[in-house]
Amino acid sequence: MTTPRLIIRIQPEPFDAAAEIEALSRMGDDVGAVTSFTGYCRSEGGRLAALELEHYPGMAEEEIASVVVEASTRWSLLGATVIHRHGKMVPGDGIVLVATASSHRTASFDAAHFIMDYLKTRAPFWKKEHRADGTSGDWVEAKAVDDALAERWKA
Amino acid sequence: MTTPRLIIRIQPEPFDAAAEIEALSRMGDDVGAVTSFTGYCRSEGGRLAALELEHYPGMAEEEIASVVVEASTRWSLLGATVIHRHGKMVPGDGIVLVATASSHRTASFDAAHFIMDYLKTRAPFWKKEHRADGTSGDWVEAKAVDDALAERWKA
Amino acid sequence: MWSISMREIKLVYFAWVRERVGLSEERVSVPDEVLTVADLAGWLQTRGEEYAYAFENPAIVRAALDRKHVKPDALIAGASEIAFFPPMTGG
Amino acid sequence: MWSISMREIKLVYFAWVRERVGLSEERVSVPDEVLTVADLAGWLQTRGEEYAYAFENPAIVRAALDRKHVKPDALIAGASEIAFFPPMTGG
């Protein structure tokens, strides 16, 4: 197994999902499949003006790296890119990008899905709502379904 | 449930995966997740110079449409784009793009994966190899694993 | 003596089925006793060595009636276009 | 009479734990009998109403020792940085 190219970035700046996907697909003639997932800030029907993402510097990088490395031991990956933003984001802004490249489709699909499910429950990020009416909103509550989705991969 | 925007194209021309993904993400403030899968022509370690894709015009569109519509009844999608090329492709060229948009991540992940798995076994496309040594190669053989992967979704 | 009633059907072939038959499509007159897709494949096998080669392993040749996947026991009555092809390898 | 031995530990807080405590980090001297993460959360609760509020439902506050997730029964000995935060909502 060749060592996959892993890129992990935690940053306040917007990311260019298209350029990241393109870079993965250009890694060589053995790339047969690239799966990407982008999570966006939503307005929730106009209720929200923005989301503010707080993170635990250092631990965020380490947890995401450990999830990506685990994915690369479970599936035969040629590359994986994970970018997670922090700071204030408005509806339509990308919050997180997970992209994986492999020779065959199942590896890239499953690895990307696994990374997202694990990242949701393990990466130290917290979302605070800013309401459209100008008031400060609540901290988003974690969902039990996210724990269940991550648990699935242990089967 | 709002009616999702479904785009299905069978074409000889290359596609711009980045632009298609971008268009899905710009569909509105309720898009919280976009999953994309791109399948590429591989050289298989230098063995292949090209792949030639034959298809059954009309049936290819209809089968892909029926798979996409089935996905949109099983998952709450805001949009889905499927593009499948035919004709001759060289290593690195995109062959197929499946991209789905939804509010929450599981719908877009599962719908994109389902569409790819079903498309593999139902869409009337056939790949013929062109070898790097200039000789005409074999027709790619279907894999039993692809049938098994499609069957999984019936559970 | 008995007379054989015939129907004309459009047949289309893809990938190595097309290459072996040597045609991408043709119109053929099919005897009335050919009721199912499997019957049709069996009858085509008798039409010459190209057909015998294309359908030598009929279990792996797939069929579509009017652009819908069907099983070998599907009745062909009423179909205006019948396609034969190998298992699909798109995507 | 017995003397209490103390250790100094860096504590960091995130999200609503940080807001309730009113600090993003602090250095505290922790009594030796505070052995586990759960002990530490319980001891912090006694330090004032901000802490009582932050840890009012200790079951939902998560912890990390030196940036690794741990359970409430994890021993804190040797850790140089202990973090408390709500369940994560990234992605």
Largest sheet of chain A: 4 strands, mixed
CATH topology assignment of chain C = Ubiquitin-like (UB roll)
Mean pLDDT level of chain C: 94
Q: Spell out the CATH superfamily of chain A.
A: Molybdopterin biosynthesis MoaE subunit
Q: Give helix % range of chain C.
A: 10-25%
- What proportion of the residues of chain C form beta strands (DSSP E)? 25-35%
Protein chains sharing the most extensive interface:
A-B, 37 and 38 residues
Walk me through the structure.
- The complex is a heterotetramer, with 2 copies of chain A (155 residues) and 2 copies of chain C (91 residues).
- With 155 residues, chain A is an alpha+beta fold.
- Chain A has one domain (5-151): Molybdopterin biosynthesis MoaE subunit (Aldehyde Oxidoreductase, domain 3, Alpha-Beta Complex).
- Chain A is built from 4 helices and 8 strands, in the order βαββαβββαββα.
- A 4-stranded mixed β-sheet of chain A has the order 1-4-6-2, with helices on both faces.
- The longest helix of chain A is centred in the last third of the chain and has 18 residues, at 105-122.
- The radius of gyration of chain A is 16 Å and the shape is globular.
- The radius of gyration of chain C is 13 Å and the shape is globular.
- With 91 residues, chain C is α+β, with helices and mostly antiparallel strands.
- Chain C has a single domain (7-85), classed as Roll (Ubiquitin-like (UB roll)).
- Chain C has helices at residues 15-21, 37-45, 49-54; strands at residues 6-13, 25-31, 62-65, 68-70, 81-85.
- A 5-stranded mixed β-sheet of chain C has the order 2-1-5-3-4.
- The model of chain C has no long low-confidence stretch (mean pLDDT 94).
- In chain C, 24% of the residues lie in helices and 30% in strands.
- Classes of the chains: A alpha+beta (155), C alpha+beta (91).
- Chains A and B meet through helix 1, strand 2 and helix 3 of A and helix 1, strand 2 and helix 3 of B.
- Strand 2 (33-40) of chain A pairs antiparallel with strand 2 of chain B.
